[in-house]
Design brief:
- The complex is a heterodimer of chains A (about 300) and B (about 290).
- Chain A contains 9 helices and 4 strands.
- Chain A is an alpha+beta fold and about 300 residues long.
- A 4-stranded antiparallel β-sheet of chain A has the order 2-3-1-4.
- Chain B is α/β, with parallel strands linked by helices and about 290 residues long.
- In chain B, about 30% of the residues lie in helices and about 20% in strands.
- Chain B has 8 helices and 10 strands.
- The longest helix of chain B is centred in the C-terminal third of the chain and has 16 residues.
- The termini of chain B are far apart.
- The relative contact order of chain B is 0.16.
- Classes of the chains: A alpha+beta (about 300), B alpha/beta (about 290).
- Chains A and B meet through helix 1, helix 7 and helix 8 of A and helix 3 and helix 4 of B.
Chain lengths: ~300, ~290
């Protein structure tokens, strides 16, 4: 077994370098396909992360009657907090609302006219952050003025959120579809490139068959060679991506506006994807290519 | 060199003594005996058995038996029709016939590159059609095959080309070295061991191929037009080598168009035409002589 492994690995290594041009062509094809795959994956992940971030921002705001007492407000907040689909509840008092308004005016560099007023015209509000944007309708309904007299009105962003959810879902489905499609195209092109490298050695395979080599002895060196092509392709692809990471990151941030893309976990996923796809496609490509010669 | 073949099942063959009619064919249960083989082969077998000593005087089975073999390709072309052929151990057989007569198909059946449409091909007691795919490689090691175009790997040396046959069949290195050295000595290529095929003459390349065919200690050597690419003098050299190998006890089946060689040697000649055996005579010439 060990001798067989040694034999296969040695022959895979020899095979790669004896046919350097073919092998490098297969590797180059592999790199291009992996870049394509990784590129689509990054865009898809980025878009989804962006939309998820927006989804997290979705909150239900209920403005309260000016005569609501602090106790009533706290009771309402406590009640809403109990819901399983609610992440957190913030109470914004009238003073706090005014303060926020002033800050935002200041940040926009506009003149603050509230100084001219003798009383605070703003309402107190309850801001409910949701665990899932899909819970919006239920939470909005539970805050309705009919249920809680102290609620003056609830801002209805139902349509907007539903549209956002639709876009996210479409993107998730279509994106996965495109990713699978790109993966299949990559598979065909890589299998073809590896097949060329195998065909170039068809004479060797024929001699092996004639002298009575078992299928395993014919197949595994090629499979290891394919795995090596895939591994090398993946390493080159990752090196290119690492080099492009900084500018790419800048682009992502510019494009999607200050998104907290978790580069750490994304890198781990990306390495897994590129390595897995590279080695997997290499092995599959060789397996399929050699099969043609074995089934006779 | 070649051990006596004992029927694996140990059943005594039933063929009657003196029956030299080649149309009586053995089955797996009753392997062919000396008596049912053609006279010359029987003589040589008897001689070899006598040389081995009394205790080893067991009936040999035929190396190769074709029984009522018909091969039709998927395109409808019938390449072989009702072919019956027995080749006893130690025989030297010329397979002759015009192009398209079915020689290549016959050889493909023997190495199980193709399977018969009807009938059976029994090599060393095994029916090739019933042989599981997994066992085909092991069976092929009992055959050494030599081609007109040598089929050597151009990037490997003579030594590596021969060793390749053992490497890819999983032999450990310590067995490979002595075995390769031995067969290179038999074919007389010890001095050229480190050269690559391009540095060799045609005859030397064919001798390399013969060494590779021999390295597994085959029961049967199949030579498909081995002298087709060689000039007459070198052709004789190759033939002398095959005869010597035959004398060592290896059965040889040689397909050829070389009339001069066939006629001169007066060995057994099997002539194919349009897929049928039209002649099978011991001591025959290339062409019919009546």
């Amino acid at each position: 077994m060990l001798a067989f492994l040694y034999f296969s690995l040695r022959r895979a290594w020899q095979g790669f370098w004896r046919n350097a041009v073919m092998s490098l062509a297969a590797t180059a094809t592999m790199v291009l396909m992996l870049l394509l795959l990784a590129g689509f994956w990054i865009i898809q992940t980025g878009l989804l992360a962006g939309l998820q971030f927006t989804e997290q921002k979705v909150q239900v705001v209920a403005y309260l009657q000016p005569n609501a007492t602090e106790t009533q407000i706290n009771e309402l907040a406590a009640e809403i907090q109990q819901r399983s689909d609610v992440e957190s509840v913030d109470v914004v008092t009238r003073d706090k609302a005014l303060e926020r308004f002033r800050e935002s005016m200041k940040a926009q560099g506009r003149t603050d006219l509230t100084e001219q007023l003798d009383s605070n015209p703003l309402y107190a509000s309850v801001e409910v952050k949701l665990k899932d944007a899909a819970a919006l309708r239920a939470v909005t309904e539970s805050l309705a003025p009919e249920q809680h007299p102290i609620v003056r009105n609830v801002i209805n962003i139902q349509d907007l959120v539903e549209r956002l959810l639709t876009v996210t879902n479409i993107l998730r489905t279509v994106g996965t579809g495109i990713l699978i499609g790109v993966g299949l195209i990559a598979l065909f092109i890589i299998v073809n490139a590896i097949r060329l490298a195998v065909v170039a050695r068809s004479e060797e395979i024929e001699i092996m068959r004639l002298v009575g080599a078992s299928d395993a002895f014919i197949r595994w060196p090629f499979v290891f060679e394919g795995a090596f092509v895939g591994f090398l392709g993946a390493v080159i692809t990752l090196a290119i991506l690492a080099g492009a990471a900084e500018p790419l990151n800048g682009f992502m941030v510019d494009f999607f506006r200050v998104l907290p893309l978790q580069i750490g976990s994304m890198t781990r996923d990306l390495v897994t994807l590129v390595m897995g796809a590279g080695v997997g496609l290499g092995v599959l490509g060789s397996w399929v290519s050699v099969r043609t010669y074995l089934i006779r | 060199m070649v051990p006596a073949a004992v029927p694996a099942d140990g059943v005594e063959p039933k063929a009657s003594r003196g029956d030299t009619d080649r149309h009586i064919f053995p089955t797996a249960e009753s392997p062919v005996t000396i008596a049912s083989a053609p006279p010359s082969a029987a003589r040589s077998l008897r001689r070899r058995i006598l040389e081995r000593g009394r205790d080893q005087a067991v009936p040999d089975r035929a190396v190769l038996v074709l029984h009522d073999v018909t091969k039709q390709y998927p395109n409808g072309k019938i390449a072989l029709r009702d072919v019956d052929l027995v080749i006893p151990e130690g025989d030297f057989v010329f397979l002759v016939g015009p192009s398209g007569a079915g020689k290549s198909t016959l050889i493909k059946l023997l190495i199980r590159d193709e399977v018969t449409t009807r009938g059976e091909v029994v090599l060393d007691g095994q029916d090739l059609a019933r042989l599981p795919r997994r066992q085909v490689p092991r069976m092929r090691r009992k055959i050494g095959i030599i081609f007109q175009d040598f089929k050597l790997l151009p990037t490997k040396t003579v030594w590596e080309n021969v060793a390749f046959a053992l490497e890819v069949t999983g032999h450990p290195r310590r067995q490979i070295r002595p075995a390769v050295d031995r067969v290179l000595a038999i074919v007389g290529l010890t001095a050229q061991a480190k050269q690559i095929p391009a540095q060799l003459s045609g005859g030397e390349q064919q001798r390399t191929a013969i060494a590779r065919a021999l390295v597994h200690d085959p029961r049967l050597i199949i030579a498909d037009e081995p002298t087709g690419n060689l000039d007459p003098l070198i052709s004789w050299e190759i033939l002398q080598l095959l005869l010597r190998i035959n004398e060592l006890g290896v059965t040889v089946l040689m397909a050829t168009h070389n009339a001069e060689v066939v006629t001169a040697l007066r060995k057994r000649v099997v002539a194919l035409e349009e897929g049928r055996i039209i002649r099978d005579e011991v001591g025959g010439a290339y062409h019919r002589e009546d």
